[in-house]
Amino acid sequence: xxxxxxxxxxxxxxxxxxxxxxxxxxxxxxxxxxxxxxxxxxxxxxxxxxxxxxxxxxxxxxxxxxxxxxxxxxxxxxxxxxxxxxxxxxxxxxxxxxxxxxxxxxxxxxxxxxxxxxxxxxxxxxxxxxxxxxxxxxxxxxxxxxxxxxxxxxxxxxxxxxxxxxxxxxxxxxxxxxxxxxxxxxxxxxxxxxxxxxxxxxxxxxxxxxxxxxxxxxxxxxxxxxxxxxxxxxxxxxxxxxxxxxxxxxxxxxxxxxxxxxxxxxxxxxxxxxxxxxxxxxxxxxxxxxxxxxxxxxxxxxxxxxxxxxxxxxxxxxxxxxxxxxxxxxxxxxxxxxxxxxxxxxxxxxxxxxxxxxxxxxxxxxxxxxxxxxxxxxxxxxxxxxxxxxxxxxx
Length: 395
Ligand SMILES: NC(=O)c1ccc[n+]([C@@H]2O[C@H](COP(=O)([O-])OP(=O)(O)OC[C@H]3O[C@@H](n4cnc5c(N)ncnc54)[C@H](O)[C@@H]3O)[C@@H](O)[C@H]2O)c1
What we know:
Helices cover 38% and strands 14% of the residues. The protein is α/β, with parallel strands linked by helices. The strands form 3 sheets. An 8-stranded mixed β-sheet has the order 3-2-1-4-5-6-7-8, sandwiched between helices. A 4-stranded parallel β-sheet has the order 10-9-13-14, covered by helices on one side. The longest helix is centred in the middle third of the chain and has 32 residues, at 197-228. Nicotinamide-adenine-dinucleotide is lined by residues 6-12, 29-32, 35, 81-84, 96, 99-100, 103, 118-119, 151-153, 155, 258-259.
């Protein structure tokens, strides 16, 4: 079996390497030529795949990174793992996906199976992508198979990975489902077959909307606890002793990354089209966007105004122990602090360079330090007596 994985980012690369390690010959395609050059040298920024694994998979001949989409024409299965972000108007941006599926279709051979892994709103596979595959390939719908299997990867999670996280799957035809199942079964422990692609599309959006709503709820409760003068984390751990009916979520400067703040907007977008409003999502999105401003206010209170003050923001990626800054709420935090006249520097040894600025060292030269994203490596004793505002739940 020979396959192509289109998009070699946080989702596509771990998938390509897992498939390669199971003995499948994998082409990893990406438009980003620098990324391909780095992969060919065994280098990646994706935490969940070690450079050693990439080099090994290349040297055994099981993994070939390339920017040439024509490898699709030699592939039995093509998986699409490209970004599905939001536009400036906060609506779904399918441009990467449509471009990728169009180029796949133009190289698709008869009898192959196309699997979409990118997150999309229900109806996208059947209503938007299938017509592109048919029109651009010149193949009839019964001359290739098509399935949807959303990725559930959680970057930097030490317990749950591509192998032991159950996978959702639905084909447009029984044959598509069966072929996709036989493929994933080689390197995924458990696969849940859904009765339609729309079920699988919606389930993925439900999972991430659940997280956005609950994290936003906890952030609102953390503001309540702070005003009350009690520790939100102690409240959460007390509530979490209940053995059923409660799941802990934790406070932060807001939700970030390519998934949790974005995917619910795909669901909300579909809800508007079909006239079934998802008000919880709208409110959670609003609370999430307000959190950086709340911490700007807390900073002002803590040191009596920000004008001319030297503020160090610690951790700028969207969550601890990753270098990913997509949709990071720390961006809005820094902007808010600057708008109040603060001189803002930031420290993050994982991100190093961001928005044209470089990470600075931890030191005692600041009027205030804000712990935004607590990476494990941080040694806050280097701050000396600098007051610290902890966005993760200090009073
Ligand atoms: N990052 C996560 O934690 C995560 C988790 C689950 C699901 N997802 C979903 O998976 C999808 C991919 O996300 P990601 O985080 O891997 O994105 P990413 O930005 O890390 O990687 C996507 C890659 O696709 C490449 N690309 C874009 N258009 C292309 C094209 N036409 N041809 C070839 N390559 C192309 C980009 O250069 C990029 O390297 C999204 O739909 C996302 O919602 C992401």
